[in-house]
Amino acid sequence: MPPLIVNCCRYALLALLLCLPGFNFAEAANEDLKIPNLGESSTSLFSADYEYELGRMWLRGFRGQAPLVTDPLLYGYLENLVFELVQHSELQDRRIELVIVDNPTINAFAVPGGVIGVHNGLFNYAVTEDEFATVMAHEIAHISQRHFSRRMEQAQEQGPMQLAALLAGVLLAATVGSDAGLAAMTTAQGLAQDAQLRYSRANEAEADRVGLRTLYNAGMDPYAAPQMFERMYAATRYSQGDRIPEFLRTHPLSEKRIADTRARAMQYPKQIRSVSLDYQLMRARVAVQSAQTPEEAVAQFRSAAEGDPISAEATAYGLVLALTAAGRPDEAALTLDSVWSVNSDRIEYVMAAADIALARGKPDRAVAGLERRLELSPGNHPLTMAYANALHQAGSPHLAEAVLLEQSRRVNDDPGLWYLLAEVQGLAGNIVGLHQSRAEYFILVNALDAAEAQLGYAQQLVGNDFTRASLINERVRDIKEMRAAMDRS
After folding, report:
1. Rounded distance, CA 288 to CA 297, Å?
2. Helix residue ranges per DSSP H, 360-465
3. I need a surface site. Which of 6, 38, 74, 372 has the fewest CB within 10 A?
4. Same domain, 257 and 309
5. What is the pLDDT of residues 368-407, one digit of tens each?
């Protein structure tokens, strides 16, 4: 990357830091701010490979700073939905990474290189799966049409600064609130001399059009798009300042845009879709996780059950989760019976039953139930994580370790897996493995110094196991390469 562009990026990142509360300029002046040096792109300032590497590097840093959801079931649902949409999209490079932010606000974002994020608050706001998918399809369209790259290339040397500002603004919106994120973007805009961080109207119109086609091709209702936009627009009519959803700060809506989306939707046959139980179950999970207290969630679902809920089954499921979290497993078990008979093999219900068994102090029963269900879906990640945790609670850390080690060969990018694996390895007496697993966790959250320290501890304990020592040394080299990529300029 040309030195001038690197310096522009540095100044943009410095401007972003200045927006953070408690930032000490005197201390920062002694630090050499650095950004990733990803090398020259072969065809343009922002090639697909450049975007991919930048996105993955950004994701590691984001994981280390933003409050993230760690629910494997929620991730599993989102992966299935997004990859179904991607298969019917114009996206060529389908290396997608997903991240769910624990934030009650309405927001979703797409980062160059196929990183798609969503605040879990969107689940509470989008009433149907089709409405939720509208937002996801829109973000996929931004990636497939390479709007970041096209805007940045137009800006030439100021482009990387705009991109750095945008990526940092996404992080700030997720961690310290939308006003800080907007302030960071505004500061960088001034430095970039009128560079615009919001998508242009043409980009938004294109993402609406392409996203709508993706929605229809995936078998979903295109009329959900104007419905979702209308609900968002209504929510902002009387909002000011930080009450405006972050999504609408960067994706501004207008009555004309809603009308255009409605007109485009009318060009497609209306899809009559039944209520998605999968989606409603996930909404119930998010509602329980987002409640101030478990008892508040219990009251919320009892009230919903007395009315006319979108899905009575999902409402009962939410009540089961809330009662379990509130320490009332016997009541939860009775409520689960009302949905258990409908589909006793549904993974959500099997895992809910396991949680009830654990809350009752019967981990062996939880292990048995999860083990039976895993025979039908071997390798299923949410089930496997629940199974390993149940083994842990049952006092079988060696078995839990074996399960998680095997699963890590299938899914190696889940920080929660490495965190739990380190815990059970410690209980099983595998201290070298504990340090290795901690290192993998720290790598995923971009704590490279901590990761290298853990591998150093492992090296001291490995003894004459040359095979294991070689693997540890190789991972240390990987970390040094990651750090070098961040430090070079």
Report:
1. 6
2. 363-376, 381-393, 397-408, 415-428, 431-444, 448-461
3. 372
4. no
5. 999 999 999 999 999 999 999 999 999 999 999 999 999 9
Question: CA-to-CA distance for 173 and 184, rounded, in angstroms?
Answer: 10
CB 483 within 8 Å of CB 36: no
CA distance 98 to 110: 9
**338, amino acid identity:** S
Claim to verify: residue 236 and residue 289 sit in the same structural domain: no
Query: How many domains does the chain contain in total?
Result: 2
Structural domain of 145: 3-265
Are 420 and 404 within 8 A, CB to CB? yes
CA angle 416, 418, 420 (to 5 degrees): 70
Q: CA 176, CA 180: separation in Å to the nearest integer? A: 6
Asked whether residue 356 is domain-assigned, the answer is: yes
Which of the four pLDDT bands, split at 50, 70 and 90, describes residue 247? low
Percent of the chain with pLDDT over 90: 57
Residue 304 falls within a domain, yes or no?
Answer: yes
Q: Would 86 be classed as within a structural domain?
A: yes
Measured CA to CA, the distance from residue 408 to residue 388 in angstroms comes to: 12
Q: Which amino acid is at 488?
A: R
Cβ atoms 210, 90 nearer than 8 A: yes
Do you know the residue count of the chain? 489
Q: Rounded distance, CA 15 to CA 197, Å?
A: 15
Asked if the structure places residue 436 within a domain, the reply is no
Q: Are residues 7 and 79 in the same domain?
A: yes
With tokens 């809910």, the residue in question is 352
Query: Within 10 A of 144 (CB to CB), how many other CB atoms are there?
Result: 22
Together in a domain, 197 and 99: yes
- Long-range CB contacts (< 8 A, 24+ apart) of 435-443? 435/461, 436/472, 436/475, 439/475, 439/479, 440/408, 440/412, 441/415, 443/60, 443/478, 443/479, 443/482
Under 8 Å between Cβ of 276 and 284: no
CA distance 367 to 397: 13
Dihedral of alpha carbons 316, 319, 325, 329, sign:
negative
Among 55, 28, 137, smallest CA distance to 90 is for 137
Query: What confidence tier does 155 reach under pLDDT thresholds 50, 70, 90?
Result: low
pTM score > 0.90 for this model?
Answer: no
- Residue 121's φ and ψ, nearest 5 degrees, are -60, -25
pLDDT tens, position by position, 302-352: 999 999 999 999 999 999 999 999 999 999 999 999 888 778 899 999 999
Beta-sheet strands, E only, within 320-423:
none
